[in-house]
Every structure is written in structure tokens, then in C-alpha cells.
Amino acid sequence: KPTFMDPEKPVDATLLDTLLENANWAPTHGLTEPWRFTVFTGSARQKLAGFLQGLYQVLTPTHAFKKEKHEKLGRNPLLAPVVLAICMQRGNNAKIPELEEVEAVACAVQNLHLSASAAGLGGFWSTPPILSSAEMRAFLGLGDKDACLGLFYLGWPKEGVTLPESRRSPMNDKVTWF
Questions:
Q1: Which of 89, 128, 150, 161 has the fewest CB atoms within 10 Å of its CB?
Q2: Contact at 8 Å (CB) between 38 and 140?
Q3: pTM of the model as a whole
Q4: HSE-up of 77 (CA within 13 Å, CB side)?
């Protein structure tokens, strides 16, 4: 989670380029390479935070508005030194289903996340519902058929923070052999 990251410890631009290049090698049907990333660092994170808060306020009916959610949208982008908007650029090839493009973007994010973990960085993929709005697409310069699939928070763990242990159920419970 972003709360485990040190927002004051920057991610070197060369390392970030390497992570993005590794993302670029994800599998993709028809070589459409639909993944797009918008990188927010430094003061751009504040711009993102302000936009997210404003968007939440505009899109959320008064009865559903939650102050904590509004505050979190303004706080989270400032808790990590890098925030990546994970985007899908929808191609013109009608033979390739949109789902396959989304899956290719997810593979790109997996490549990025594995590379980040190997380098000692933490990563967290967040998917607030407001990201699917036309306003978010416009903010990111995306087309009408494109989509923002999430925000990926990236940073070095804070010194002295013990990260929670990740758990998975046994793989044998998820595999069927014929």
C-alpha cells in the first residue's frame, strides 16, 4: 500500500525507464501493444490528487459522498514518489476483443510489478471507480474508446517498516490435470 512507501525517496529515472521497458514486453494479441502509462512524479502528484478529489466530488451524489474517500483520493498520490496511470489504448482491429487488450495491459503491469519487486520497490494497483469516467480519460488525454484501468503506486519501502506477509492458497487447489 502507498502508506508503506517513502514519498521523499525518489525512484531513479533510469530504473523507472527499465521498469517501463520491461512492461513493454508483455504478450499481446496481434502486437497491438495497448498499454499506455502516464507518469506522475514530484508536484504532478499534487495535480493528480487535486483532480481526483474534484472528480469524486463532481461524480458522487451527495447521499453517497464519503469524506474519508475524498481525503484518501487526495492523500494517496502524495504517499508514493511515483504514480502511474495504467491505461489501455483501444486499437482499430475489430478482430481483437477489448477484453484481450485489457488482459495485455494487465500483463504489462505484472511485468512492471515483478521488475519493481526484484529491484526492492513496492507497488500497489488501485482501481477507484471514478477512473473509468470520461473526465479521467480527458485528463489523461485518452480517446473515447481508451480506458484508465487503475493507478499504480510505486516507491521504496519506508525504513523500519515491516511489510505484511503475502499469502496465497495452495496452487494445487487451482489446477486441474487431465
A1: 161
A2: yes
A3: 0.93
A4: 26
